[in-house]
Structures are given as C-alpha cells and as structure tokens.
Amino acid sequence: MTEWLKDVEPLTLKGQIAVPYTWWAGETGSRFLVSIRDKRKILGTKCKECGKVFVPPRKNCGRCFTNMEEWVEIADEGVIKAHTIVHYAHPLQPVGPPFAYALIRLDGADVDFLHLIKKDLDKIRNGLRVKAIFSEQRTGHILDIDSFELI
Amino acid sequence: MARRVAVVGTGQTYHKSHRPDVTSREMIHEAVTAALADAELTIREIDAIVIGNMDHFESINYVDTYSVEGSGGVMKPIMKVSTGGTTGATVAIAAYYHVASGLFDRVLAIGFEKNSESDTTGAIITCSDPVWDRFSYSGAIPSLATEATAYMEKYGATQEDAALIGERDRNHAMNNPYAHLRRPFTVADIMNSPMLAYPIKLGDICPRSDGACACILAADGVAQKIAPKPAWFKAAAVRHTYTWFGDSTDYNKGLVSMQRASKDAYAQAGITSPVDEIDVAELYLPYTWAGLKWIEDLGFCGPGEAPKFVAEKNTHMGGKLPVNPSGGVISTNCIGATALLRVAEAAIQVMGKGGARQVPDVRNALATGFGGCFWTDVVILSSEKP
Ligand SMILES: [Zn+2]
Question: Do the interacting molecules here have an ipTM over 0.90?
Fold first, then answer.
C-alpha cells in the first residue's frame, strides 16, 4: 500500500488564507457588554409571552418568536448547574489548565450562563453558589467577568 | 408526480454596507418576520425551513443551528444548503423540492450574509481547488475579467457597452427601497472608476452588503388560500461544472452551465422563445459584463448581439424584457441572500407587489443564481399554475 512512497515524495501545500473575522455584537449584545464594562452589572432580556429571562440577552424569543424589549438586571451570583475541570492546554482556551468550565444559573435568569471557575477546583460541586469576579481592565467582552468564585 | 408549488410571501431587510445594530441571527429574524407578514402566516404554520449562506463568511458554519431564534426553526425540521454564489437560488430550489415531494405544505427559504464581518475574497477563493487553482488563478474579479476580455475580443464589445449595464441597474435601484446603493451612477462614472483587473473597473462590480431574504413556499391547494396571486414554480434547474477553471470555463463558448440550465428550464416551462414569453428577469449579474454575455447564454438574444440589444433599451424598464427592476447585484450583494433575492424579486413581480419597480402584467419571471467556478441555477415563476 505504501509502495509508491519509494518512488514519489509526498508533498503538502500550506494555505494562505487567514480570515480576520470581526462580528458586530448588535444593539442588544452591545448593551449587555457595555453594562458589564462600565457598571459591572449583568443584564438580561425578558420575553413578554413566556416570561423567560435570557442572559446573555437575546433580541427575540426563539420559541415565542417575538421581540424582547424588556431589560432586567440579573444577580452576579448564582448556582453551579454543571461543570468540568479542564486539565489540558489549547491555544483557544481562555486560560491555562487547570480551570473549570461551568453552567451557572444566575439568580433571576431562566437559562444557564457559561463561564469559568479558576479557584478552589477541589471544592467545586454542582449546586454550590458562586459569585462573579470582574476584571480590573474591562474592554466590553464576556471575559470582563474574569471568573466566578465559590461564595 | 411532484406537487405544484408556489411562492406565497417574501421578506427582505433594508440592505446596507454594514449593520452594526444586529447580529446575523437578528438580521435573519427581520427578513423572516417580513415574509410571514407578507403571507399573513405565523411561524407555527411553517412546516420546515431551508437556510443558507456562504461557507466561511462569518465563521458560523452551522447556520441551520446558529440561526434558529431568527429563523423560527426551534424544534422544526431545518436544513442548511450552501452552494457558493448560487446558495440563495439553491435554497429556494431545495425548499421547492421539499414542498413538491409532498412531505411539507409550507416551507420557509432563507438566505443571508454579513459581508461586513469578514474578508469576502478570502472566503470566496475556497471555491477553487486548494492544490492547484488557488495559487495560480486567485479571486472572483480576475476570473470574471478573463471572461470579459474573451468576450471583447470575440465580438468587439467595448467597456462602454458593459458600463451601460451598471448604469441601467443602478438607475433601477432608485425604485427599490431595499437596495443598498441608491445613487444615480452613469456610464461616465464607471469609465472614470479605478481599473482593478482589465477590463473590470471598480464601477463594474457588485458591492459587499449586509442583508437577509426569506421566501415562503406552499403546495397547490394551500398556496391559493394564502396568496391572492401565488407565484408558481414552472421550472427549476441546477447545473454545476468542474471546479477546474481551465476546464469549466471555455470562455469562447460562453457560460455553458447557464446555457444548459436555461435550456432545461425553458423545456420544463414550455418556453420556446424566451424574449417573447418571459416578461421580466432578475439575473445574478455580479459584474457589468455578465449583463451582456450571459443574456446571450440565456437566449435573450444571439451571440454577440447583447451590446446592441441592451443599447436599444430592450432590458431597461419599459423595454421588451426588463432585467433587474430591483437594481440587481450591482446595487445589492449580501451574497448568501443574493440569489434568493432574485427569486423573491421574480415572485414580487408575478404577485404584482413591486411598487415603483413593478413591471406591468407579469406572467413569467425568470431568476438566476451564479456561483464560484461558473455554475448556474435558473428558476421560472409564473402567474399561471403549470
Ligand atoms: Zn418567549
């Protein structure tokens, strides 16, 4: 099967494409990001039909298919619903291992918020309460919340 | 026997160079809610969704899933279709297949693009063979420019002949409130614009737009209850050629995929003399020269006759066969939506909802999609149920 390798050198070609993607956060997303940057406050949107509160905010409720105009302030505390502790490194991960990715149900929200836990990894359990720690340098980014810590 | 299918509603965004106020998902929602309003339906009445955009454009390559809040696809059958520039027309044709199959009564077709979020050329070039053509024949503009020079040499067409297509479409766009570029643009403006790749100048090519489009298709028996004047599918044809530019495109023969797709479409629709039987055409013309060469491939006039045919204003509003009342791709190009906009605009013409851009008494409307390595989709919509 690999006989041909005796006769021909197998070559590869490197691509030249590196696409500099930039996404608009939109009016709804920008309002959330500006709020965590400037006021350290977490905002969500509420559906007037089903009453669900979404964080990060969405412009329309997918199930009810109506626009959501009502903004609500969400607590910076909540409960760990599920988590994993990461032990390997990858350039796309926000920090080096070990750290935890967690689904956190913030008080006042109806969906889970995805974020990081960096400390007390040996003590993390689903159902424990955590609090948001804001970064000192904030740029209007989901990681303006540095991570969550056990209360 | 497949069921008869019609477009019963259309919706589109106000297209712009960039939409900082919305994400692409939110932009899709605008087009879908507009289409539902046009058809007077709710999202609950939609049985399935087909959606598409250009792969690699926004780095969101699972748009079927990504878009569900915008598309209304939560817990509905939804399928992504992506075929490069033809995507929008292919989305419409795939939705047509869905309904014609008898499995779904009301299907939503969606196309969108946010060109402002990426590098269009970097993404488009992925249509080319990665080992061969990508290094030695790069980008949309040079390949189209090569086609144009071949046409010029063969028939003696001039740059002014092509520029008239740009002037025509940009003037038509003045009648379309949704068009991206709505400023008058003349042959002189195009001739004075910077040369990019001979003979294509900046004024000869389409813009990069942010926008979305949605169409609702319904089955015979259902369509008549939704729309007073449904736009019936009389034909849908898709032709793809090789990805090798040196084999797919014999520039001296013309755009073979468009010749074959239109021939198939005319046979399906029972059309023998396109120029007499088609009342309006919404053509995917990404650059001015396509408005000459490709109308020959579509059989609107004979080989080499397009410059005269266009100069005599046969394709202007009020002419024998108006082309691009919407302003076409030269005025608006949100790529994954672009070919669906052609189908939507053709439907609008058949349904008589064109406002200032309406062509009177449209019976048959033809729409095309064009993509990447010179492939073609053709759709013919009609006020008559076939
Ligand atoms: Zn809701």
Answer: no
